Structure formats: C-alpha cells, structure tokens
What does this fold into?
Amino acid sequence: MYSLRSRRAKILLATSSFALIAYLIRRYRRYILLKKRRTLTNSREQTTTNVTPLTRKTLNKRFFHQIRILIRILIPCIRSDSFLLLIVHLTTLISRTFLSIYIAHLDGAIVKSLVQRNPRNFLRAISIFVSVAIPASFINSLIRFAESKLSLAFRSKLTRHAYDAYFRNQTYYRVSTLDSRLLTPDQNLTDDIETFTSTLTHLFSHLTKPFFDIAIISWSLVSMVRQRKNARGLKEVPGMILIVIIITFMALRRLSPRFGKLVSEEARRRGILRFAHTRVIANAEEIAFFDGHEVEKSWILKLYDQLREQTNSIIKKKLWFVMLEQFLMKYFWHACGMVTIAIPFLTYDGPAETDDPIGDPLGISARTEAFTVSKNLLTSGADALERIISSYKEIAELAGHTDRVYTMLHVFDDCAHSNYQRTPIIPSENPSECSSALAKRKISVDHRAKGEIIESDEDIIAENVPIITPNGDIIVESLSLKITPAMHVLITGPNGCGKSSFFRIVRGLWPIYSGRLYRPDPSNFFLIPQRPYMCPGTLRDQIIYPHTVDNAFVDDSQLMEILNNVELQYIVQREGGLNAERDWKDILSGGEKQRLGLARIFYHQPRYALLDECTSAVSIDVEGKIYERAKQLGISLLTITHRPSLWAYHTHLLQFDGNGRWTFEVLNTEKLLTLKDEKERLESQLAGIPEIQKRLNELTQLIGEDIITTTENEENDD
It folds into this structure.
C-alpha cells in the first residue's frame, strides 16, 4: 500500500513538473514574441518620428549639451529677470536651512527643560519656537512663491524664443508640410515647454536645498562631536554614513527603470491622441455626412489604449522602484542613523556634562538634549540625501522633456535654413503594384535644396526648375518660362498636375532642388485661395489682412470703395460697421468669403495676384467686374480656373498635361472657345452611340438575325 502511494506521488510529481516546465516554456516563448513585436514597433516609430531615442545612461554628454543650450535661453544674462528670481530663490533656500538647524536646537532645549522639569525654561523655549515659526512659515511660502515665479519666468523666456523661431521664415508651414520630425508641434510649443520649465525649477529647488542642508548639517554634527573629546565617532560615523550612501545610490541606479525614455514616449503618445481629437473637430462636418463616427471612435480608442498601456507600464515600474526606495531611505537609513547617533554616546568615557550638578549630577538632560538635536539634524540630513538620491528618477524624466524641447528648437532651426528631413511614402517592392516609371519619378528629400532663388525687379523667370512635392514626387522635371507684369496668365490642367504647386514654388513655400528662379520680392505676390482665410477680428481686419489697424494706410471711405469693387458694400450695414467683430468663417456665405478675400488684392495692390479657383462660388457677372477692375489697377493676374468665362481676361496660357509635360503660349481666346464648342459637340454625338448600339442589339433579339440577313440579301439582288 505504501509503495503504491509512493508510486502515485512520484507520477503526480513528475506530471506536475512536466506541466510546469511546459507552461514556463510557453510563457517564455510568448515573452520573446512580444519583445520582438515591441522592438519592431519602437523601431518603426523611431523611423517615423526620426528622433534619437534616449539611452540607458540618461546623464550623458548629449543631455548636458541640450540642457546647457536651453539654460542659455532661460538665463541670457546676469541682468535678466530670471537670474534675479534665481538669486531670490537661492536666498530663501539658504535661509530655510539655517532656520531648520536653529529649530532643531530649540527642540533639544524643549526636551531638556522637560527632563529637568523646569517650567520657566520650557515656557521660554516654547515662546521662542512660536516666534520663530512666523518667519519660518513666511520663508516656506516664499520658497513656493519664488519657485512658481521662476518657473513662469523660464516658461516665458523659452516660449518667446520658441515662437520667434516658429514664426521665422515660414517655419510654421515648413515644419508640418516639408518636414516630418515633429508630429505635434502644438503640443511641443505648449505642454512640453510648460512641463520642462516646471520640472527644471522643481528639480533645482529639490537639489539645491538638500546640498545646503547636508553641508551645514554635517558641519553642525562635526562641531557637536568635537565638543566630546573623549568620544570616538569622528572617523567611524562619516565612514559609515558614506558606505550607506554609496550602497543606496548604487542599488537605486542599477535597478532604476529608464524613466526618461518612458516619460518621453508617454508625452509623444499623448500628443498623437490630442492630434486625433483636433482632426475630428476640423473634419466634423465630413465625418457627420458619412456617419463615420464609429471609425473615428475606434481609432481614437486605439490611440488611447496605446497611451493607457504606456502609462500603466510606468505605474507598474514605479511600484517596485518606490518600494525599494522607501525601504532603503526610510527604514534602512533610520536604523543606520540610530547607530551613528549611538556611537558617540556609547563610546564616551569622560566625566558627566551637566549644568545642574545637584538636580542632574549624571547629565541626563544634557545627553537627552544632544540626542534630540543630533536626531533632528540627522533626520533633516537623511531627508536631504533622500531627495538627492531619489532625484535621479526626476532627472531621468527631465532628460525626456529636455530631449523633446531641444529637438523642437533644433527642427525649427533646420526648417528656417531649408534643411528638411521627411520620410517619403515608400512604394511597394512588388512589380505588379509599382511600376518602374513611378520609382523613377521619386527622389529623396532628406537633403538640402540646391536650386537658386534670385530676386529680380519685376519679371518671373524659371530656368530648368523642377516641381517636386514635399514627399519627393516629381510633377514636372524641368520648367522654363518668363512672365512679365504685362502678362495675365491662365493656368489649366488636370488635378495633381502642378498648378497650385507652381504657385508654391513661385511664392517660395516649397524648396527648389535645382535650376534658377528669378522673382520679385515676396511682398509683390498675394495669394487668394479657393477658401480664403478669415482671421479673428473685425470686418476691417478681414480686408487689410495681414496688416493691422496700426499700420493700415487707407481710411474708411477707401475701404468702402474696395468693398464696392467686389460688390460687398451691403455687408457693412448688415453686420454693424467696419469695426464689428464676428465669427466671419461661419457668418459669411461661400461667395461672400471669396469676394472678401478678393477685396484684399484691391487693398494691397500687389504686382502679381495668384488666384487659385478663388471665384468658384461667385456669379459670372460679378467675377468679370472684379477681374476687369484688377487689370485696370495694373495687377498681373495668374489664375487657376476651369471657367471658360475667365479666358477673356488673360493673355497667356500655361497648360500642364499631368504627365510632366507643359506648354506656355499666347492665349487665343476665340480659337479656344471654338475648339471648346467643337469638343462639346463631338462629345454629345459620341454620347449617343452606345444608346444606338444598345437599340440595335434589342432589335436583333426581337426580329432574329436570319430575317435581317434575308432582307439584306433581297435588297442586294434588287
């Protein structure tokens, strides 16, 4: 019986062991698979964002270089307001350290008076403590006030610097259109700057004061030990404290997660989620028309789940790290602190130190006072060391925020100097899905444009200038033409052939990768798109945009004349005057917004007006009056349109065929209209052929092919 049970137990043990091993192998294989997927996902994200990831060593040369560059922006000179606030903040921190030491001695005096049972000394010490508490409370509040003011000053400095870089040389356009390194520049300019400055200021406070505390508290403890000449501890205690600090620091450094990389990734995912919400708001009408809310909801929930997973990962990693941190710096340090306090007292072999030989001949009250003062000082010193060592985690988080802010400024500077990095859409390697012609018509845009832009007096001259999109698609390989102010050019062609791209090249929004472009100063161009931009402000601001009221050069009567040119004089009375503030984007109709956009060319009177389907919602008669008045003012019109009614107002035709070819010739309006009428007539005739063929097939089925053939033969015999 016993052997049978033993055999069953062995079989059960072997089966359980085999099942456990199989389970562990399965879990390990799943872990390896998830790790590979995560590595692949991270590599793709890094390729997309093109941002160098943070390494394991957060405090490296790269971090110190970045933080040094940013500090130069935050504190440009000694006379800056941020430097003065920094001095005030340092002064409050030092004052708080001396107050902490004084309060520790007061605690010792209170305990000593209690041991001596001396009411007078007790009340005296309590009175001093309460009186000192008032300035101590003020200094504590002043520390927080100075920290908040310093953080706000840093944020203001960095925000102004970032905005100057963002709105210089059309960087706001280039960073989102021509470059792909910053996915969410709005978050970089707001949340990232605020988080970086607040983290930097908070870390400065939590590092500066602990260093002051350690220095002054160490000096106070050494002075107390020296007073006891017969005690041993001046050498043993510092050595023991140093060993404990090294052990704690090495343990936390080895076991600390990469908080910098984790926080940076969390901020990136938060920015993508915000961008998705912004996209839904911007395209709410189209989504509502198609009832696409379920698709958008699933996409946003997917992005939120990615953010939740990252945040949850940080929380889990902090759980074990904070547990280790609390164990080492609270309980382990407390035990070591009690040992270091006890060494001078236990090794003292001199006479009893007392100020009351009759009531306290053994000096118990003096030892109690010294013990209380030492304990308070060591507690303060331990707290300071705890803040210094635990700040490694905050420094790692600061490194993540620093990398994002520095990368933002670096990308702004690159875009301002026409250095772009963009990940192009890579065509499929399958020959059936990608033709060789398409592969030949793409270039790498990760290099600086080598074309020349030369300022001319009046003419627009293009010499072998290619039209290349920001993604690297070659629309036109070489464009050479000359446009003078006396010309009015009509630009036509199919969608995606390069009509609007030509405007972007001429205006300087897109880089020129080869050739030469002679053009006047950009102030001589004014673009009116199909959907004109309505800025916040009054009706006057809409007409004179981008000028402001301060630099406007016309009066109200001239503005009314401008509105009369575009048949919008009635809108002044309807909306309550030129100074009425409205949400013009929603109040005005499509035609009114287009005419208000056209009013801007009558105000600015540029040399060249770039008109991109800007009259699609305007009636033909009003459209003709506007074009005629613009020509009378000497404005050269470069128009993209599909309306034949506008051909009569132009002298030349620039036509793209959509396959990279183009023609530039004198516009013969009558010939074009004749050809257009013939084309429409032929199309109408050809449109009836399928119906005739269909009717013939129906008759064939009803009558029969043999009858038709017999009839045809009889007719031939006759």
Q: What stands out?
A: The mean pLDDT is 78. The radius of gyration is 40 Å. The CA atoms of residues 249 and 629 lie 78 Å apart. The beta strands are 452-455, 460-468, 474-483, 489-492, 516-519, 525-528, 608-612, 636-640, 652-656, 662-666.
